[in-house]
Design a protein that fits this description.
This protein is about 30% helix and about 30% strand. It is of the alpha/beta class and about 230 residues long. The strands form two sheets. Strands 3, 6, 7, 8, 9, 10 and 11 form a seven-stranded mixed beta sheet that branches. A hairpin with a 2-residue loop joins β1 and β2. α3 (about 100-110) crosses α4 and α5 (about 145-160) packs parallel to α6 (about 175-195). It is globular. The structure holds adenosine-5'-diphosphate and magnesium ion.
């Protein structure tokens, strides 16, 4: 079953009097449980593609469907609702709330969705943090965690609402290679055990073997899919 379906997506940024074509005829589908690595140099359009796939940015042209939601036509409010229920994001810069503990950083998701951070939500936050190897860190502030631990809290936050699509923007770029590999391994096992579709942006070819499929992007254009290890 297709979770993400992007067809002939184009994104043009107007900046001063120059137009920047950040994405051109981008076509990409991702199925349930499938992990796609999006590999390309800086400035090639990776973050633009993820932002459009997750309903953070509107395409200039093209079709974008997530779980059958036709998101380019959505209002701002519909997009907020859509994101809350369908998509998880993990950014390079982690973005945890500095004055909240690991557990509270997950509960924020529940509160944004109208929940009250009650017993069930706390239980879920603890269970997720436990799965991610952070059972002993639930009450620590982000500043008291290592880079890898912070990234794992960010993954827990992205998974909190059981999204069917999780978008990772260079999740290992701030980590050294061995920690990066551990985080990628964890991402892979979490995505596979939940049958969740994901797109993982990277410019590091050492990380692509964790994906089922590698798609290259250069100057806003996607290449043909390649088997992993090619
Ligand atoms: P990547 O994530 O692969 O580094 P981006 O998607 O961030 O690439 O950017 C693709 C291109 O679009 C780059 O040339 C970048 O400078 C440009 N770009 C990105 N965001 C904006 C913006 N808000 N306004 C104008 N140009 C932008
Ligand atoms: Mg980027």
């Amino acid at each position: 079953m297709t979770v993400l379906d992007m067809r002939d997506v184009r994104k043009v940024y107007r900046s001063g009097d120059a137009d920047i074509v950040a994405l051109d005829h981008a076509t990409l589908t991702v199925d349930r449980g499938e992990i796609v690595a999006l590999l390309g140099p800086s400035g090639s359009g990776k973050t633009t593609l993820l932002s459009i796939a997750g309903g953070l940015l509107t395409p200039s042209e093209g079709v974008v469907q997530v779980n059958g939601h036709d998101i380019p036509g959505y209002s701002a409010k519909e997009l907020t609702d859509f994101r809350r229920h369908n998509v998880g994001f993990v950014f390079q810069s982690v973005n945890l709330v500095p004055f909240l503990t690991a557990e509270e950083n997950l509960l924020v998701v529940d509160e944004l969705g109208g929940g009250r951070g009650g017993r069930a939500a706390k239980e879920r936050a603890r269970q997720l943090l436990g799965e991610l190897g952070l059972a002993h860190r639930t009450r620590n502030l982000p500043a008291q965690l290592s880079g890898g631990e912070r990234q794992r809290v960010a993954i827990g936050r992205a998974l909190f609402n059981n999204p069917s699509l999780v978008l990772f923007d260079e999740p290992t770029s701030a980590l050294d290679t061995s920690l990066g590999e551990q985080v990628m391994e964890l991402i892979r096992s979490e995505m596979k055990s939940r049958n969740t579709a994901s797109v993982i942006v990277t410019h590091d070819t050492r990380m692509t073997h964790f994906a089922d499929r590698v798609v290259r992007i250069v100057d806003g254009r996607l290449g043909a899919a390649e088997p992993v290890g090619a």
